[in-house]
Amino acid sequence: MGHLNYLPNYLYSIAPRKYMAYMLHNFKKIPQIQTLSPEQIFAIEVVAHILPFKTNNYVVEQLIDWNNVPDDPMFILNFPQKNMLSPEHFDRMAGLISENADPVVIRDTAHEIRMELNPQPDGQMERNRPIHKGKPIRGMQHKYRETVLFFPSQGQTCHAYCTFCFRWPQFLGIDELRFAMKEADVLQDYLSAHQEVTDVLFTGGDPMVMKADTLSVYLDAILDGDLPHVKNIRIGTKALSYWPYRFLSDGDADTLMAVFRKVIRSGRHLALMAHFNHPHELQTEAAEKAIHRLRQVGVEIRCQSPLLAHINDDPDVWSAMWKEQVRQGCIPYYMFIARDTGAQHYFGVPLHRAWKIYRQAYQKVSGLSRTVRGPAMSADPGKIQILGVNEVDGRKVFALRFLQGRKKDWVCRPFYAEYNENALWLDDLTPAFGKEAFFFEAS
Ligand SMILES: *Cc1c(COP(=O)(O)O)cnc(C)c1O
Ligand code: SF4
Question: What is the pLDDT of residues 377-394, one digit of tens each?
């Protein structure tokens, strides 16, 4: 029994109450909701008909500071806000709800509005779906040579939903957009045909909503599959933030640790790509214990987050977060730019400001935190980092580079775009110095 090798479970049992999931149909039962005005509650209801909404008792009781609502970053992260929709979209849905419209009409209207919110930026699904034995595989993306993204179909939900999330079409049951893949042997088969792959990244949703037994089916397919070229396994998750008990006191938490140990014993690097948006998420007793336990097992924890207006668009928030991550033995990894989907007008931070926030935060931390790379846009051609704003020959330009590119030759080659104060995303940029196209557009 693997779990005898580390601290017994009872030391981690800080006995959370039963996991309560609150969603559209029952969120009004949350006692703390009564601190809001009827208008605020109605606004949540309206927006939650369109954007995903799910919270739980840990988030409500331990992450959100209800004395600080409506400005509390954890509240904004988890509870839909009126301004996340345009006034027209809001009023349209609010009207239907107030007049008790037919549920079918409400549903169809919600769908229409969602389709106007760019649910699939960059054609992500189509462009990166691998072809294997002549057929496209669902539930996988293979965009960068070394790394395969795998979306286990049981991990396409989350312990709570982030209001900014670009994965939101997956939670809303829009079937044609949903990644699904049940067969671990398709994964195995694909990996054995692709000797160039060193990393598999399990993602979702949140793969940490899966039972340990389910996860181990997929991991065993890699461990038992004669795939020595697959050296690193990563799991993207927000469970350390939204439900740290997943690693402590959930019924199969000990089994989960045993599954992780097995991966590490196979000689592989196991990394949790932890999603933290705010230092507060790292500071609860449960989060700290969960991080400690994972590190004892030998799991590396690397941290990433988008930069989000209303939540973390402040250098002090980032420097505090990186310092806290490093103190607890985690590794700051990526700062992302919020992508052009859903409520981007609400969360978006202009590129020049994103760079300033990154730079100011970076200046406040020691080298141990400077493993973080950003601010970066995960766009169609690749992951593009904003190196900064500079003046060349009296012209203001953005200097940029690829951290990852569709073609490996693109990586680390600096390039320049015309300075644009309002640019939020790659689409808003044009090449500097009168060039017709960016170098990567020509090929
Ligand atoms: C970010 C990302 C990866 C991983 O890139 P690393 O630089 O290795 O962290 C892999 N695939 C896709 C599609 C990504 O966006
Ligand atoms: S946990 Fe991740 S996938 Fe889930 S809603 Fe938040 S950002 Fe999206």
Answer: 999 999 999 999 999 999
> Could you give the domains of the chain?
10-115 (no CATH), 131-347 (3.20.20.70)
Across the beta sheet with 232-237, the strand order is 140-144, 147-150, 199-202, 232-237, 269-275, 300-307, 331-337, 373-378, 382-392, 395-405, 415-418
CB-CB contact of 341 with 166 (8 Å): yes
Q: Which ligand is nearest to the CA of 275?
A: 2
Least confident of 8-12, 42-46, 113-117: 8-12
Residue with the smallest CA separation from ligand 1 atom 4 is 147
- State if residue 124 touches ligand 1 by the CB under 6 angstroms criterion: no
Beta strands of 24-102 (E only): which ranges? 54-56
259: Cβ contacts below 8 Å, ≥ 6 apart: 212, 215, 216, 219
Cα 341 to ligand 1 centroid, rounded to whole Å:
19
Cα–Cα–Cα angle for 30, 167, 293, nearest 5°? Answer: 70
Using the structure block, give the residue that is written with the tokens 């000689």.
Answer: 267
389-428: burial string, b at 16+ Cβ within 10 Å, e else: beeeeeeebbbbbbbbbbeeebeeeebbbbbbeebbbbee
Angle at 430 between CA 425 and CA 436, to 5 degrees: 145
Q: Kindly report the number of other CB atoms within 10 A of residue 386's CB atom.
A: 23
